[in-house]
Amino acid sequence: MKLHEYQAKQIFARYNVSVPKGIHCHTAEAAQIAAEQIIAETSNPVVVVKAQIHAGGRGLGGGVKVIPGGPRQVFQVAEKMLGMQLITHQTGPEGQTVRRLYIEQGLAIKKELYLGLVIDREVGRIAVMASTEGGMNIEDVARLHPEKILTESIDPLIGMTAYEARKIAYKLRVGEGCPSPRTTTQRFVDLLQRVTVLFEREDCSLCEINPLVVTDMGNVLALDAKLDLDDNASRRHPEWGDLVDRTEEDPAELEARNAGLSYVSLDGDIGCLVNGAGLAMATMDIIKHYGGTPANFLDVGGGASREAVTKAFSMILSSSKVKGIFVNIFGGIMRCDVIAEGIIQATHQLDLKVPLVVRLAGTNVEKGQALLRESGLRIETANDMGEGARKIVAAIRSTAA
Amino acid sequence: MSVLVDKHTRVIVQGLTGSAGCFHARQCVAYGTLIVAGVTPGRGGELVDAVRPDGQAVGIPVYDTMSEAVTTTGADVSVIFVPAPGAADAILEAVDAKCRLVVCITEGVPVLDMVKVKRALVGSSTILIGPNCPGIITPGECKIGIMPGQIHLPGRIGVVSRSGTLTYEAVGQLTALGMGQSTCIGIGGDPVAGMDHVTALRLLNDDPNTDAILMIGEIGGNAEEKAAAFIRDHVKKPVAAFIAGVTAPSGKRMGHAGAIVSGGTGSAKDKIAALEAAGIKVAPTPADMATTLRSLMQARTQLAVGARPSTTEKPVNA
Questions:
Q1: Which of A393, A311, A400 is nearest to A350 (CA)?
Q2: What is the spatial distance between Cα A284 and Cα B246, in angstroms, rounded to a whole number?
Q3: Quick check: B246 and B268 in contact, CB under 8 A?
């Protein structure tokens, strides 16, 4: 689960991780009032207007504006930004609609650092990564200057120690040029330790502060904040329910998740219904191999009920981009007759207007095939997934021609 | 012999009285697995009925703790069906009870729970498979997990995979070609897990009853890249591979928690390139997993006997 910057900063503040003063708002009027308040509190006429979407790279896409001209100018900029389609390298070509803004105090920045916490899969620990190349895309830094990224692996029994944080602080020369280098270094060490505690207690899967800034006064603050939360831990965090922003999510993916299905929207025109994540991915791959393009990734799971299969098939049927459907099932716990019943049930409510190819294998395959045959639906069957993929790609070509 | 489990393996089911635990324990007993105990706190003293392949009914005794179950039965392998919030605790309990092998089927374990479990495994001799995996099977002898037993055939091909149903697909293809399996290990789709490809490959490579290996990977992480290096340096047996997710978009989690291309790493393209660079044959489509391995084995046999490569493929009736 992804959080907005303003939500992440609220969590940061709870852990005494310093963040600039900021106010979150939905309208240009509220943005103006927020700017007045921040300017009064900070005695600094400069504020920053930041679009809140669940994607990075906002600055380059025009979603972050430094405003020196006061509240009236903030109103004008906010009015333009709200409702715009913000396109960044993480949003996809259609962009994301801006519905929320964050108005933040301007800062006199001395240097910009990068700080990231991730799960290092290889060693199975939290890895803390830091770099002097703040503000840049860290993937580019990793590719072009891997030596500029420092990494510490955190022992889960001990947490991040002060000496590990100091090691990073001195290598990055955090305090250099500040009024009191020692104080600034200590602030950086405190921040690193607090963020690591936060990461663990809040069940994060990613925490990125890019940039982490050192101000002219030698303060250390998180200027940006990105937090991803581990969906698997949601049961022990009932408070996460309030953090979900449904407007940021693909409606189909949200609908599927509520039905217990794993679904990802894709750009193609062949709808897929598969059991199991690996087989679902492999089904997309084989469709592509034979010249088609998948419209979705859909895993109905290992032991889905007839209702879940019905729901899954209905979602595919009701999608306007779907020109053909490929059902690929290898029944283990999942029984082929349950799949067949779900397909038939769904076509009672929504007509089947596109070609359908079904490949069933495994548990109760004869029963499933018999049900489909007797249903009177126009279904092509396939004996293996290669044949199924070839048939659905051919069927779409012939309807297009 | 085979890898890790055989017809003498004695197994405890953690979470036996739950619906998933009970259903799959019965399936395992029906396959011939020696399930000798179950553990559910608060349910000690109950019996769960099951039927062996010979038709004999058995009652599996339930204990409150793993230590009691291990002491009483002498079993040294555990399989976990405990729901996700308690799964990490169940693994730690099995490690504490000195189980040799722990197979965690449970899906949805918080990743930071697994970080702690991994730390607890340092210095322990317990091997963990999973979580979020189908389990391990030595066909005809012992099935520990949720895979459909009937698609397997005893034989000499080792299979290791991060996926569940895609493994069934691969096994189904192998069986259809008459290529039986020595042991199939599903290592699971989570980002932080127990056994990785390399450990499984080492076991299968050292097993005298495994002639060739089929490895199935997917997007996310770099386990397949590490496996490629290991195979290049250490494995003399024929290895074929398939990597799922060539068409998966970057930044999207494809079902499995670990199946995500992020930060420029973990793409199927990179994995396939690493495998091919290490001389491993990668199946062009998921429908060709078994035929790819077969052609590799045939080529090796022909090389070994000095025969000229055959120009005609035998018809495949899959």
A1: A311
A2: 8
A3: yes
In angstroms, the CA A56 to CA A136 distance is 11
Helix-then-strand count for chain B, H and E: 9, 14
Closest CA to B129 of B137, B208, B36: B137
The tens digit of pLDDT for each residue in B243-271 reads 999 999 888 888 887 888 776 778 999 99
**Tokens coding A397:** 């070509």
Cβ distance of A279 and B112 shorter than 8 Å: no
How high is the pLDDT of residue A401? 66
B65 close to B96: Cβ distance less than 8 angstroms: no
Contact B254 A264 (CB under 8 A): yes
Q: Which residues of A are catalytic?
A: 114, 208
Residue B308's pLDDT is what? Answer: 53
Contacts of residue B249, Cβ cutoff 8 Å, sequence gap at least 6: A264, A266, B261
Helices (H) and strands (E) in chain A, counts: 12, 18
Instruction: List, for residues A306-323, the tens digit of each pLDDT value.
Output: 888 888 989 998 888 999
**Cβ pair B285:A386 closer than 8 A:** yes
Q: Residue B316's pLDDT is what? A: 46
- Per DSSP bridges, beta strands A47-51 and B239-244 are unpaired
For the record, the structure tokens of A21 come out as 């003063």
B249 in contact with chain A, both atoms CB, cutoff 8 A = yes
Q: Which residues contact A146 (CB under 8 A, 6 or more apart)?
A: none
Q: Say what the pLDDT of residue B162 is.
A: 94
Q: Token pair of B318, please? A: 């899959």
- Which tokens sit at B154? 């005893």
Candidates A90, A297, A62, A206; CA nearest to B254 is A297
B92: nearest Cα among B65, B53, B62, B61: B65
Could you tell me which of A238, A260, A178, A243 has the C-alpha nearest to residue A24?
A243
Strands B212-218 and B239-244: parallel
Q: Which of A155, A275, A284 sits opposite B165 (nearest CB)?
A: A275
Tens digit of pLDDT for each residue in B44-87? 999 999 999 999 999 999 999 999 999 999 999 999 999 999 99
A235 touching B, CB under 8 A?
Answer: yes
Q: Which long-range contacts (CB under 8 A, 24 or more apart) does B245-249 make?
A: B245/A281, B245/A284, B245/A285, B245/B218, B245/B219, B245/B220, B246/A285, B246/A288, B246/B272, B247/A266, B247/A281, B247/A284, B247/A285, B247/A287, B247/A288, B247/A294, B248/A281, B248/A284, B248/A297, B248/B219, B249/A264, B249/A266
List of chain B residues whose C-beta atoms are within 8 Å of the C-beta of residue A264: 249, 252-254
User: Taking a C-beta distance cutoff of 8 angstroms, is the pair B24, B135 a contact?
Assistant: no
Distance between CA B75 and CA B72 in Å, rounded?
A: 8
Report ipTM (2 d.p.). Answer: 0.91
Q: Distance between CA atoms of A294 and B247, rounded to whole angstroms?
A: 9
- Residue A355, classed as helix, strand or coil, is coil
Write the DSSP string, B215-274. Answer: EEEESSSSHHHHHHHHHHHH--S-EEEEEE-TTPPTT---SSTT---BTTB--HHHHHHH
Omega of the bond prior to A211 within 30 degrees of 0, cis?
yes
Put simply, whether the predicted model's pTM sits higher than 0.90 gets the answer yes
Two structure tokens written together for B159 = 């299979």
pLDDT at residue B89 in the model = 98
Mean pLDDT, residues B139-168: 95
- Quote the mean pLDDT of chain A: 93
Q: Which two tokens stand for residue B225?
A: 């890249």
Rg of chain A over all Cα atoms, to the nearest angstrom: 26
State the Cα–Cα distance between residues B315 and B318, nearest whole angstrom. Answer: 9
